[in-house]
Amino acid sequence: MVLLSTFIGVFLAIATASSAAPTGACPAPKPSPNQDPGYGTPSKNQTGIPKPKDFAAFEEKYRAGIRASLPSGNCTINNIGRRRSWDEIDIATRLDYIRAVKCLAAKPALTDKSLAPGAVNRLDDFTYIHINQTNIIHGTGYLLPWHRIFLWQFEEAMRNECGYKNFLPYWDNARFSEDPLASAVWSGSDTGFGANGIDLHLEAKTVIFPGLAKPFSIHMPGGTGGGCITNGPFTDFTISLGPVAKTFIDKNNTYGYESNPRCLSRNFDPASSKGVLTWANATAIVTTPNIAALRGTIEGLWHKNSHTYIGGEGADPFSTTNDPAFYLLHAQIDRLWGIWQGQNLQDREYAIDGNRTFLGIPLDYAPDVPPSLATIEDEMDMGLGFKPKTKKGMPMTKGGLCYIYE
């Protein structure tokens, strides 16, 4: 059995005939040219580690490149969505975001029950397709473009189905790498996502990936929690799908599609953040020389450790989307990729690297298919019948996508 203790960052996905936000819905309401298309007045939170000047310079070059590329189709300087750090958006926007997440949790699932009998609500639609596609969208060339579209689908569902008036925030974990709990993301108030779960004094374990032609397992640390979260707006949250990555292959519920109602758990692992999710490493990511180096670094370093830090539901490579903080975590990854692209937008916007399956390992239903490289013309399954080409998930201002990170 392959044991890769440092690769729990190669995380899941979804895809087959049903899930995520439906296509063809009304476009999100756009602000007028005289209205700030981002959030309300940014907070003046000065906590955390200040952004280094070199990273700020790379970020500004990215923003300048995006602005210079506009207009791009229907995306203009006046209507581009501004994605900002959770620690910088105002209280009203945080509350509205959390309200919209709970709104999706109250809406019935659209996923066919024959595919996921345990899918209860719209959040489960996203979790189902992420589970379904995990072995295709992690450790492959699809990691970044698939998740870029996935985040956009979630943002659109929040706006169109639940009246959220702003854009997807990100978890600025580099700013709080040495003291993650100082971030407002993990606040136990009504304006955060809650903190750690009850400490169950868990031991480290090895869990198995189902669905691959060759056995593959990953190491999960014992962490400092593991039980239900006890504060914040999601203490009464009930999740249904998963878990999937277990110490054994569950023949009766291999992919966690059956109903399994339970609380939201977390298992913070400080060692995965301190000295790891730093400004220095973030800078190293956005300055990698090519897409192969970028993908390997962002996936093996940032993606891995961000999920491992959260632990609990958030660390299961398949059903990680059960934790609402998932979307802020992946917005940060998308942001780092975007900043890297923005250093040379012309040459990097459609750059792709990687296999079509997890680490090139064949899927169990096609064990004899040799490894092959992903291309931007490949089709990606986003759920609910939406199967765009990979190239749709490469730009930030084309094909219906229209946003910038601030």
TrEMBL record:
SUPFAM superfamilies: Di-copper centre-containing domain. GO terms for molecular function: metal ion binding; oxidoreductase activity. Keywords: Metal-binding, Oxidoreductase, Signal. Residues 1-20 form the signal peptide. The keyword Metal-binding applies. It comes from the Eukaryota. The keyword Signal applies. Residues 21-50 are annotated as: Disordered. InterPro entries: Di-copper_centre_dom_sf (IPR008922), Tyrosinase/Hemocyanin (IPR050316), Tyrosinase_Cu-bd (IPR002227). Residues 323-334 form the Tyrosinase copper-binding domain. This is Di-copper centre-containing protein. It comes from Bimuria novae-zelandiae CBS 107.79. The lineage of its organism: Eukaryota, Fungi, Dikarya, Ascomycota, Pezizomycotina.
